[in-house]
Structures are given as C-alpha cells and as structure tokens.
Amino acid sequence: MKEIGExxxxxxxxxxxxxxxxxxxxxxxxxSILLKRNPEFVKNVDxxxxxxxxxxxxxxxxxxxxxxxxxxxxxxxxxxxxxxxxAATCKHYGIKKIATFDEDFxxxxxxxxxxx
Length: 116
Fold this sequence. Notes:
The chain is mainly α. It folds into two domains: 10-59; 64-114, no CATH class. It has helices at 13-28, 32-37, 39-43, 48-54, 64-77, 81-93; strands spanning 10-11, 58-59, 97-99, 112-114. The strands form two sheets. Strands 1-2 form a two-stranded parallel ribbon. The two termini are 25 Å apart.
C-alpha cells in the first residue's frame, strides 16, 4: 500500500535494459561499440545505484500478447521496436501515463506523456 502522495511506478525489461545501458554510457563516457569491444569497461562499473533505482518500480512481465500488440503499435504510430514494446506493455496493463524524455510517445493516443 502506497502512502498518500506516493506514486506507483512500473517498468518492463526493455526499460530495465535501457536504464542499465544509459548508466553504463554515462559512467564510462563510452559508446556502445567501445563498451561491446572492451568488457573491462562494463565489468568495472558499480551497477548497484541503478539497480536500487530499478527496485523502486514494479516490474511488469512481457508475453506474446504484448509482443503482438507491439507489432500493431509499430504499424499505427511508427515507433521503433523498444518503444513499441514499452507502449504495448502500458496498453496491456492499462497504464495511461508515462514519464519519459522521448517525444515519440506523444504520438501514442492512449498514453499521456508526463513532462519531466
């Protein structure tokens, strides 16, 4: 049960992956090619802070239903696959608001983008 004024937050595996990847890039200052070619860069990053952030959210699982729904969302809104999976997860679980810096979600009529 949430306290008054607390917000419930949800994420899926795509968001988890994007958060960890962004954290790795910010902490190392390296792009994806350098991270992939130099595993030591990745091994040397303390990921505990990002996992503590992830733990604040309820993680929603994916399914074939979400995957199929993402295909429809790609076709209708022109979202890229990861964004379509995020939007499909929201639709499947009845989530109507999304906190994001990604302007592409403003094209999705069933989501209200919260200004951060």
